[in-house]
Amino acid sequence: MEEVEEKLEAGQAKTTFRYLTRLLTPIFLESFILTFLADSDFCYIEEIDSASKDYCDEPNTQYSCVSGRKYYGNGLLQLFWNYNYGPAGNNIGFDGLNNPDIVVSDCTISLKTALW
């Protein structure tokens, strides 16, 4: 968000508007539009039918999958795969590989992963 504030202070409103549009459009599409299609009162912050998916890239040794964890789409801008949960957690400050569900249960982390 500091980047947005800096651009606004520098008089770059047009650039900032484009940045925010590129950020918020996928969040809207992935989280909110499905609410209307499903006639539900809630936004989707977990991938539909996620129990059948785990998105584990087993050959990836840098961000190895943790037994019993699934790396399906979570968050406002859904995060997938162990090779995304690992670096997102490192950059934002949570254990993405051991606790991928925190992206759903913690609103702050959900927002930070969308901005990441």
TrEMBL record:
InterPro entries: Glyco_hydro_19_cat, Lysozyme-like_dom_sf. GO terms for biological process: cell wall macromolecule catabolic process; chitin catabolic process. Residues 41-116 form the Glycoside hydrolase family 19 catalytic domain. One of its GO terms (molecular function) is chitinase activity. Keywords: Hydrolase. This is Glycoside hydrolase, family 19, catalytic. It comes from Dillenia turbinata.
